[in-house]
């Protein structure tokens, strides 16, 4: 039963990644694209966690933690660049 | 693995998948950038929270030990999602909304999106 639920969750988050990709391509403003990239990072973390359950190893938690940190820092850096024209003042 | 645990893990996985899908679908469906902020920042964060709870239950029922990595990731994501949303909203405001459309800030200096704070100004 868990494997079927896992496949369903994989499909959901994969479809979510496709939606984000569409928003990055179409998005009328830079803020839409930053938001879509941020959502992509969150979906990617979810996929990594699900892959860890599928394989039965706890190795992927460190990877998803790192992806979460890098994603947050890159979102803030991108926004700061658009806001102030500089990342660290 | 006991059957109740299996049902619980599957329920959390499906709930997480549905929430993640709804959040990402909101990114496509909603009309305005400010509306679009709602989907990813709330629904997707809740979805990944559900997925992490499912993973925690799974490794608890197979290995027997409670791992705190998932809680760490959940805490980090729940802390950073509002900050990122605030930054994206500020980016939208500075690019698309004119200064004159906003109400007055009722202080001696304007909104921080457009004006530097007085502490920064004194340095120059």
**What is the total number of structural domains of chain A?**
1
Identify the most extensive interface between protein chains: A-B, 50 and 54 residues
Largest sheet geometry of chain A: none
Number of helices of chain A: 3
Please identify the structural class of chain A as seen in this structure. mainly alpha
User: What oligomeric arrangement do these chains adopt?
Assistant: heterodimer
Architecture of chain A in CATH? Orthogonal Bundle
Straight-line distance between termini of chain A: 53 Å
CATH class of chain A, anyone?
Mainly Alpha
Mean pLDDT of chain A: 89
Gap from first CA to last CA of chain B: 66 Å
Please give the number of β-strands of chain B: 0
Number of E-type strands of chain A? 0
What does this structure look like?
The complex is a heterodimer of chains A (89) and B (124). By secondary structure, chain A is an all-alpha fold. Chain A is built from three helices and no strands. The longest helix of chain A is centred in the middle third of the chain and has 26 residues, at 30-55. The N and C termini of chain A lie far apart (53 Å). With 124 residues, chain B is mainly alpha-helical. Chain B has one domain (3-98, 110-123). Chain B has five helices and no strands. The radius of gyration of chain B is 21 Å and the shape is elongated. At the A-B interface, helix 1, helix 2 and helix 3 of A face helix 1, helix 3 and helix 4 of B. Chain B: GO terms for molecular function: sodium:proton antiporter activity. Chain B: Keywords: Plasmid. Chain B: This is Na+/H+ antiporter subunit G. Chain B: Pfam families: PhaG_MnhG_YufB (PF03334).
């Amino acid at each position: 039963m868990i494997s079927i639920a896992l496949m369903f969750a994989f499909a959901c988050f994969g479809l979510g990644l496709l939606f984000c990709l569409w928003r990055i391509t179409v998005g009328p403003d830079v803020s839409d694209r930053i938001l879509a990239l941020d959502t992509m990072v969150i979906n990617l973390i979810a996929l990594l966690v699900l892959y860890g359950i599928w394989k039965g190893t706890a190795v992927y938690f460190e990877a998803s933690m790192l992806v979460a940190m890098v994603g947050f820092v890159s979102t803030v850096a991108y926004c700061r660049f658009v806001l102030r024209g500089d990342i660290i003042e | 693995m006991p059957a109740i645990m299996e049902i619980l893990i599957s329920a959390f996985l499906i709930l997480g998948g549905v929430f993640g899908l709804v959040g990402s679908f909101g990114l496509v469906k909603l009309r305005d950038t400010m509306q679009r902020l709602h989907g990813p920042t709330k629904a997707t964060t809740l979805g990944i929270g559900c997925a992490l709870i499912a993973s925690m239950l799974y490794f608890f029922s197979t290995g027997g030990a409670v791992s705190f990595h998932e809680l760490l990731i959940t805490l980090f994501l729940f802390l950073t999602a509002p900050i990122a949303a605030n930054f994206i909203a500020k980016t939208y405001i500075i690019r698309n909304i004119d200064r004159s459309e906003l109400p007055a800030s009722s202080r001696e200096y304007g909104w921080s999106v457009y004006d530097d704070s007085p502490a920064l100004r004194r340095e120059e």
